[in-house]
Design goal:
This protein is of the alpha/beta class. Strand 1 and strand 2 form a beta hairpin. It is globular and about 65 Å long. The structure holds zinc ion.
Length: 441
């Protein structure tokens, strides 16, 4: 038993949202009790104590769109790379990297990403993986890193026609094998989906092949209208907009993620809503790739389940929150925009999205929920209460405020020291593999 206490507790449970001095009792992988710390300390004197030292205790964060394969791009320099638009960014940078990744480099990219997730308090990750140099077994290599680091993961391989039919089929097979493996797993720590790159790199035949092979009970994870080129391609080749094309291929639905959705119109939003498809917004990536600002506030306000991801740009969900908050104010010239929508996306919707793939309640601290808890070293300089928690997070905290991360009842980082991984050794290995990768590109 673990007792976490001695800090301001933010539960995200509407019945008891905030405790000035809260405590959480963890038994194995679940939360057993949430309440007043002083009372709980008396009630459970034998529990191992995790001291929040007057900081803030919150549920572990969830990232609903991540790219482990991009980890080794940090600091890279590719000769002749001067992108003129989004397609050049994909072809000149990301596809170049993923075509050279070995299985070991995929695993080390995952270790690097998971270490950063732990440090940023992210305990659940939905990843979208590509490694066209080594497709088969790649998701299983990522799972090895997920298990070593203790992060709950939903994985998929990015199927695309971009490197020919044989590799497309390998991508589908990798998804199918991993989905079956994950469906048979009872730990509630791993899940799988059918990953698709984007409409413009997927022929009708390929989409049919994916549908024929996809196991039941899981959906698709696909980039939708991230660049205007994706929309033009769909209109030109198929005479329809992307969401209509995906609808015709039975890709939409309550188990499916549509990442980005920048160039979608009102009709497409209606279809997303009608099919209960999930949308994930990635503000920094969209800005960094100069792709345009998605109509996320409209999508959200239509009642489409909209979450927040990072697209590999960062692993810090609080950073993503900060940027989404100002991006939409700036874009809409509306100082009232995004205040309430973005925290709902991060704290409520990401949990709802995650719970379409994982059984135990996530993103909430209450009896029976997953024991995913983080502690931040934040001491408020103004009064903090149930009504203004998000203002304190937005303006006072960052991912690096997190000092302790617990996932599935296991302490992964305590007082900023990783407990399950030798960080120095692990990162030395990552750097070694990154250098090998850079030398091939
Ligand atoms: Zn992405």
């Amino acid at each position: 038993m673990l007792l976490i206490g001695n800090g301001r507790l933010v539960t995200r449970d509407l019945e008891n949202p905030f405790f000035e001095n809260g405590g959480i009792l963890i038994c194995d992988e679940s939360i057993k009790e949430v309440g007043d710390y002083v009372q709980m300390k008396q009630k459970y004197p034998e529990a191992e104590f995790v001291d929040a030292k007057g900081g803030v205790i919150m549920p572990g964060l969830i990232n609903t769109h991540e790219h482990i394969y991009s980890a080794m791009a940090r600091g890279i320099s590719i000769k002749g790379y001067h992108p003129n638009g989004f397609l050049d960014i994909l072809d000149g940078m990301w596809w170049k990297i993923d075509r050279h990744l070995t299985l070991e480099q995929t695993k080390q990219s995952a270790m690097a990403t998971y270490i950063d997730c732990i440090k940023n308090g992210v305990t659940t990750v939905f990843d979208h993986h590509a490694s066209y140099g080594s497709i088969r077994e790649s998701l299983f290599k990522i799972e090895e890193a997920a298990k070593a680091s203790g992060i709950r993961s939903c994985l998929c391989y990015e199927v695309s026609d971009r490197d020919g039919e044989a590799k497309m089929k390998d991508g589908v097979a990798e998804n199918v094998d991993f989905i079956k493996h994950a469906l048979a797993d009872t730990s509630d720590m791993v899940a799988g989906m059918m990953g698709l790159h984007a409409s413009f790199t997927l022929s009708d035949q390929t989409l049919s092949f994916c549908a024929e092979n996809k196991p039941e009970r899981v959906g698709y994870h696909i980039h939708v209208a991230e660049g205007i080129e994706d929309l033009y391609d769909s209109l030109k080749k198929y005479g329809k907009r992307i969401i209509d094309r995906l609808m015709d291929h039975d890709i939409l639905g309550e188990q499916t993620f549509a990442a980005h959705c920048i160039y979608v119109n009102q009709h497409e939003m209606d279809v997303l809503k009608e099919t209960n498809t999930m949308v994930v917004h990635n503000p920094e990536s969209n800005m960094g790739n100069a792709c345009g600002c998605p109509p996320t506030m409209e999508i959200f306000n239509k009642g489409i389940l909209t979450g927040l991801g990072t697209d590999g740009y960062t692993h810090d969900m609080i950073e993503s929150y900060k940027v989404a908050n100002i991006l939409h104010k700036h874009h809409l010239c509306d100082a009232n925009a995004a205040w309430s929508e973005v925290p709902v996306m991060l704290f409520e919707n990401n949990a709802k999205i995650a719970n379409r793939y994982f059984k135990k309640p996530l993103g909430i601290l209450k009896e029976g929920a997953a024991a995913d808890v983080i502690i931040l070293d934040y001491i408020p300089l103004t009064p903090m209460n149930a009504n203004n928690v998000n203002g304190h997070i937005l303006f006072g905290m960052t991912g690096r405020s997190i000092i302790t991360t617990i996932a599935n009842g296991i302490i992964l980082m305590k007082d900023r020291k990783l407990t399950q991984i030798d960080e120095e050794q692990a990162l030395a290995k990552v750097r070694e593999e990154a250098e090998k990768l850079w030398n091939c590109i």
